[in-house]
Every structure is written in C-alpha cells, then in structure tokens.
Write a structure and sequence with these properties.
The structure holds 3 protein chains of 3 kinds. By secondary structure, chain A is mainly α. Helix content of chain A is 84%, strand content 0%. Chain A has a single domain (6-241), classed as MetI-like (MetI-like fold), CATH 1.10.3720.10. In chain A, helix 7 crosses helix 8. Chain B is of the alpha+beta class. Chain B has 2 domains: 25-127 and 239-284, Periplasmic binding protein-like II (D-Maltodextrin-Binding Protein, domain 2, 3-Layer(aba) Sandwich), CATH 3.40.190.10; 130-234, Periplasmic binding protein-like II (D-Maltodextrin-Binding Protein, domain 2, 3-Layer(aba) Sandwich). In chain B, the strands form 3 sheets. A 5-stranded mixed beta sheet of chain B has the order 4-1-5-10-6, sandwiched between helices. A 3-stranded antiparallel beta sheet of chain B has the order 8-7-9. Chain B has a two-stranded antiparallel sheet with strand order 2-3. In chain B, helix 3 (65-76) packs across helix 10. The N and C termini of chain B lie far apart (61 Å). Chain C has a domain at 18-182: MetI-like fold. In chain C, helix 6 runs antiparallel to helix 7. The chains are: A mainly alpha, B alpha+beta, C mainly alpha. At the B-C interface, helix 1, helix 2, helix 4, helix 5 and helix 8 of B face helix 4, helix 8 and helix 9 of C.
C-alpha cells in the first residue's frame, strides 16, 4: 500500500476541476427539464381522465424500480434503434451528454412529481379561493400566491436532487461522458489506477465544498422566501388592481 | 403499489423491448452510413480507459495497442472508414446489438457462446499475456494446477474481463478445481489484486507480466515496495479478437484478412513492443 | 435491437437465486443505518456538545462524496490502517480474514444513515414540543416520554420517507459487487460477461427489482396503516 502524495492529489485536482462545468451542465439541464416533466405528471395525475392519471402514476412507479444503467442504455442505444432511419442516424451522432441529460431528466421527472405533489397538497384549498375572491385571475393566484409557497416547500428537496445528480457522474462515464469523476477516472487509468487514493482524495476536495456551497445556498434561499415577502408582493399587486 | 400495477409494468417493459427488437434489422443497415469519399462508415467502440489497449494520451489523443491495430486495418480497407467511440464494456456490447457500433475492441477472447452472438474474425488481433502472482513464501507455486491442489483462493476479477476468462476456462476444464472465483465490478481491482495478495486477503492473483515488471520489479515502480513480498511466474497468453456485430459478414471477412496481413508483415509485433514493451506473439509461440 | 430472449429466460432464475444476498444486504444495512440515523438525529436535536457538530460534519461529508469513494475507503484503506494498528498493539487478529460482506454492510449503511437522520429530524420537528413537557409534568422520566410518546409519532411521521430510503437502498446494493460480494446485479454482470449480453442481463435485474420493490412498498403501506393510530398526535397542533 502506498502513502498519499500531495503532488498527485494536486495533479488530479487541477486536471479534473475544469470538467466541473460538464457536471453542472447536465445537472442544470436535467433539473430544469425534469421539473417540467414532473409538473406535467402532477397535472396528469390530478386530471379527471382516468387513463391519463393511471399512465402518469405508472410512469412514476416504473422509474422508481428502474436501475439507472438500464434506463441509460434504453435511452442511449434503444432510442436511436427504435426510431431508426434518418432520425436514428442523427441521434447516433449526438454527443453522449445529450442522452445523459434525457436519462436524468426522466428520473428527476418522476421524483420531482412527488415533491411537487406533496408541496401542492400541503397548501390549503382556501388560498386559491381567497385569491380569486379578491379579483385576481386564476393565473395570478397561481403565480403570486400558490407558486411561491410551493417553491419554498420544495427547496430542500431541490438541493438534495442537485447533490444526488452531481454524484451520478460514474453512470455517465459508462457511455464515455467525461465529467469531473470521469476525467479523474481517465487520468487514474493512465497510471493503471495505482494512484486511486490520491484521485479519490482530489475528488473529495472538489465534491465536498461544492455540495456544502449548494446546501448553504439553498438554506439561505429557504430563509429568504418567507411569507412576509409574499405578502408584500401581493399588496403591491392588489394596489395595482385597485 | 398494487399487483395489477406490477403486472402492467412488466408488460410495458416487455412490449418496449419487443418494439426495440422489431427495429433491430432496420437499424443495423441504416447505421453504416456513407462517408464523404463514398466509403462506408464503421463505428468502432473501445472502453475509455483500457490502458495500454485503448486510452487517451497526454495530448488528448486516443491511442493504445488495439486502437492502433484498428487504424492500420482501416488503412488496408479503403472501402471502410473507421470512427472511434468510447463506452464501457457492458455499454459497448449493448450498442453492438442495437446497431450503434459495428466493432467492439475490449481485449476479448474467443468462446463459442460469444461466436453465436457476434461475428468473430478468424485471425486474432493480439494476445493477452499474464501470469501467477503469489507471496514469496509460496514462490514454488507456478501453475494453476498447483494453486488448485493447495486450494488457494484467487483475488477478485472483473466479470467479462480477459483475466477472468482464463480462470473461468480453467475451472470449466477442471470441474474438481480447488478454488472458486470471486468477482468485483471495481475497476481498481485490476491493480489492487496485487495489494490484496500481499496483504494475505487472497492467495494468488492473475496479472499481466508487463505491468508486473513496470509496477513491482522496476526500481522506480509505483508498487516496488511489494517486490519483497510477491513473486511472479508468467504463463501462456491467450489470443484476443475484435468482436463484430452479427450479420456484418463482409466486414468480418475483410477485417480478418487485414489482421493476417498485419501479422505477416510484422506490424502487430511492432505495435506490441510499442505498447506492451515486448513482443506478445513471441511469448505465445 | 436484437434481444436474446432465450438468454433472458435462462438467466433470470440464475440471477434471482442471488436475491437472498440482496435482501440480506438491504436488511442489515438498513438496521445499522436506522440505529445510527436515530442516534444522530437525537444528538443534533438535543444539541449535545461535541457530538452534535460531529454528526453534522459526518452527514455533510457523506452527502458530499460519491459512494464509490466511500467504498474505496472502507474496503481498501480502512483494513490496511486497522492491520497496521493491530500490529502495533501487538494483537493477534487478522483483519483480512473478514468476510467482504461486512464491508458492504458498513458502506451501504453510510448514505442510508444520513437519510434516516434527516427523515427522523424532520419527523421530530413535526411533533409538538408541548407533548414532551406534558409528559414530564405528569412525572414520566425523560426516556419514558421519548419511548412511549415521542418516538412512535416521529417514526410515523417519517414513515413515507423511510419507505423511499429502503427502495433506494435496494437499488444501491448493486454497489456491493465492487467489494466482491456477488448479489443480483453482480451475477447479471458475470452471466452477461460470459456471452457479452449485458443488456439482457440488466433487464432481468430490472424485472426482479420491480417485484421486490412492489412487495416492500406493500409492506411499508401496511405498516404505515397500522401506525396511523399515532398520527392523531402529530396533527393535533394544526
């Protein structure tokens, strides 16, 4: 067993750090698209058309049971093969990061739908009616009253999802995407993984501060979104209406 | 979750794979599109880091023994243009059956089951040289037969890996073998097996000789401190082949022919010296 | 995509044969994680000196590092350090004789323990503080109040999240294969590697997961219903 060499840790750290933008790219894209899917699923589950509601809840169930590698392979290899022809051909030429984003978006779609649903259900029904009764439109009520409260409730979960996604780079590496973890693995393989300890130490030095910063940021966000602020914006709005 | 939900989930999954299966033949033809010069484009896939068979050098270029061999094959076949992709072994073979790739180079050996699933050219592209690692006090153990007799335990191997294959083959041929295989999906196991044997967690390991020399025997080797504890004996290497998608018979034939040309004119031996540090074919004979 | 159905049919029972390993890993790792998570949540909730900040650091470190790294530390580095320590202490124990499954139990319980701690902490916040004071004022001891009044409500409130933790844990057991413990994903990789048919092997794993997770969710649901007696206390304040 070898001892840790500071030089090697520094090497892995400096060489892998720039790839953090790849990580942040797929995390951001997956999160945004994932939440859109999640919102869509909640709408479907709440809809009166039974089949749509059933499909939406089945989607959540299936995704919960799917090992990430199966979904990744289905998306990366299955999708182009299924579409075939010109579309499949074009898809086959797309970068792996595109498919990684689709895969993670599908997962986040399922888990975020649960978050959105519980945030929505925690709101008291009277709030919507109160909004409507003071002359706000349905959209205004949602935008100024319901949404801010839902976001506040969902914030800790969003932070958790970002940290979860960030650490999923190992999966993306399977299809050759180089994010922070992928790049570190790459470099490590060049020395036949002899410096695994140093590599992992460098990864800790990258991941830990970033996830600490994200936790802190979301903590501040949560505090900032206090009800008093919502009330103020509401007052401004009702003044405008009157 | 209710049971009808479970059943419908299974049904959906199976029908999905059914749809995928139905599109198979279609996709395989469309995947081999044309390059600008009219040559058919062949997608070749190799693991991102399979040093020294396929890896990225300090300048960021893809190279390695198997990559360079395939580049030489490409030069000999004007009707094809090879494009290189990266994916781990499990992903590579999934892509080979969906038609995303046509050739996978993963240091693979020939087995009948593999030949049923994929096309394997007649002529090999290289050889995987390896040997037995034991602790110094067991230096007299030099063959798998001895290890089996002493009921020594082998260090974990990666499933589907060339080293694993040789041990699996031994157990298949010797049903009364005195050891069982343990597997691990940790890519670090490849080099960690040396430490595992030195620490006494396992009794022996199967390891490529050129790495052993570079890591342990060499004065400046990264694991030179294990040199006092470990002992190494080279055994016979086994041929390795590129694995080609089922149905690409024409391509398989031409690749096989090109590999023979490269073997005969000494190109493979040159590349072997360049990447392994010695001529694997010499050891093979 | 040509899928080899005969391979799936022949591999499924062989892979399913490793289900007991997966279940054992899940159950033991969950038991460890539950105990550890509960203690951590208590330590942080009661603001116990030294212990509380230590727990916070531990939780943030585990959350902030990839599981592959944690496995490496536990499986490769820890035994090495332990061996050196035992040698110095002059004890005659060989740490390398330990079955790898023990490393897997520890590695898997790390992440789960943090999730449990978070779930329990959230559960504690939902239980009204007045209940503790009410119990104490009736002459119950601190521990009696906790065991008979607070604990059941906290667990009840945390139950849905705990269900999710168990499902995540089942999926995470595949990482035990990195520590040479062969469970269902490991066997799938071995069988798939023989004939280079990985995707089909993974589909088998998928099917097994669906059934196992369905059973677990059903059990969790039953448990939640039985515990709903305690729910009244949780919502009495709202």
């Amino acid at each position: 067993m070898r001892t840790v060499e500071v030089e090697k840790v520094k090497y892995f750290f400096i060489e892998s750090l720039p790839y953090l933008r790849v990580t942040l790219l797929y995390v951001t894209v997956s999160l945004v698209i994932g939440f859109m899917i999640g919102a869509g699923i909640v709408c479907l589950r709440k809809s009166r058309i039974k089949i749509l509601a059933a499909i939406a809840s089945l989607y959540v169930t299936v995704l919960r049971c799917t090992p990430s590698i199966v979904l990744l392979f289905l998306v990366y290899y299955g999708l182009p093969a299924m579409l075939g022809g010109r579309v499949g051909d074009a898809l086959n030429r797309m970068s792996p990061v595109f498919f990684v984003c689709i895969t993670f978006s599908l997962f986040i779609g399922a888990s975020s739908s649960e978050v959105i649903r519980s945030a929505y259900e925690s709101l008291r029904a009277g709030q919507r009616e109160a909004g409507l009764s003071v002359g706000m439109t349905e959209l205004q009520t949602f935008w100024f009253i319901l949404l801010p409260q839902m976001v506040k409730r969902a914030i800790p979960n969003i932070g958790n999802m970002i940290i979860f996604l960030m650490k999923e780079g190992a999966l993306a590496y399977t299809i050759g995407l180089r994010d922070v973890l992928g790049q570190a693995y790459y470099l490590s393989a060049r020395s036949i993984n002899v410096y695994a300890v140093d590599m992992y130490l460098a990864l800790t030095l990258i991941y830990w501060p970033v996830s600490l910063a994200i936790e802190k940021l979301f903590h501040i966000l949560e505090k900032k979104m206090d009800p008093a602020k919502a009330r103020r914006s509401l007052r401004k709005l009702s003044g405008g209406v009157a | 979750m209710k049971w009808n939900k479970v059943i419908s989930t299974v049904l959906i999954v199976s029908s999905l794979t059914g749809i995928l299966a139905g599109c198979g033949t279609d996709a395989q033809q469309s995947a081999s599109s044309q390059a600008d010069d009219g040559a058919a484009v062949i997608q070749v896939v190799a693991p991102p880091n399979n040093y020294p068979l396929a890896y990225t050098d300090d300048e960021g270029n893809r190279t390695g023994y198997e990559i360079e061999v395939m580049r030489k094959v490409d030069e000999l076949l004007p009707e094809y243009t090879f494009v290189f992709n990266e994916a781990e072994q499990d992903a590579a073979f999934t892509g080979l059956s969906t038609g995303k790739y046509q050739i996978a180079i993963t240091n693979s050996f020939y087995t009948e089951e593999r030949a049923e699933n994929y096309n394997i050219p007649e002529n090999p592209m290289g050889a995987s040289p390896c040997g037995l690692v034991v602790t110094k006090d067991r230096a007299d153990v030099t063959t798998l037969d001895q290890a089996s007799e002493l009921k020594m335990s082998p260090a974990p191997v990666m499933p589907g890996d060339g080293l694993a294959y040789q041990l699996e083959q031994y157990i298949a041929e010797h049903p009364d073998a005195g050891f069982e295989l343990t597997y691990s999906s940790d890519p670090n196991v490849f080099v960690d097996c040396l430490s595992l044997v030195a620490e006494g967690r396992y009794d022996f390991a199967f390891f490529p000789g050129n790495y052993y020399d570079a890591l342990v025997v060499a004065e400046d080797g990264d694991l030179h401190m294990l040199n006092d504890t470990l002992s190494y004996k080279r055994t016979i290497p086994v041929d390795t082949y590129p694995i080609i998608a089922k149905g690409e018979d024409d391509l398989t034939e031409k690749v096989s022919g090109a590999l023979k040309t490269l073997k005969d004119d000494g190109t493979l031996e040159e590349l072997s010296v360049e990447f392994y540090g010695f001529n694997v074919f010499e050891v093979l004979e | 995509m040509n899928i080899d159905y005969s391979f799936i049919v022949s591999a499924l029972p062989k892979i399913a044969a490793f289900l007991p390993v997966t279940l054992k890993l899940t159950v033991v790792a969950f038991a460890v994680a539950f105990a550890a998570g509960l203690l951590m949540a208590l330590a942080i909730n009661r603001r116990i000196k030294v212990l509380s900040p230590l727990c916070r650091i531990y939780m943030s470190l585990i959350r902030g590092t990839p599981m592959l790294l944690q496995i490496y530390v536990i499986y490769n580095l820890a035994p090495y350090a332990a061996a050196a320590f035992i040698e110095k202490a002059g004890l005659d124990i060989n740490v390398y004789d330990i079955d790898p499954v023990w490393y897997a139990y520890i590695a898997l319980s790390l992440t789960a323990s943090v999730s449990v701690a978070e779930a329990v902490r959230a559960g504690m916040q939902s239980v009204h503080q007045g209940q503790r004071e009410a119990g104490l004022s009736m002459g119950m001891s601190e521990s009696a109040v906790f065991i008979h009044i607070l604990f059941p409500q906290v667990i009840c409130a945390a139950m849905p999240v705990i269900g999710n933790i168990v499902v995540d844990l089942i999926k995470a057991t595949s990482l035990a294969f990195m520590m040479s413990v062969t469970e269902i994903t490991g066997e799938a990789k071995i069988l798939g590697g023989d004939v280079l048919r990985y995707f089909e092997a993974y589909l088998c794993v998928f099917v097994i997961y669906i059934v196992v997770i369905a059973v677990v969710e059903k059990m969790m649901h039953l448990l939640e219903n039985r515990m709903s007696v305690y729910r009244r206390g949780v919502h009495s304040s709202t």
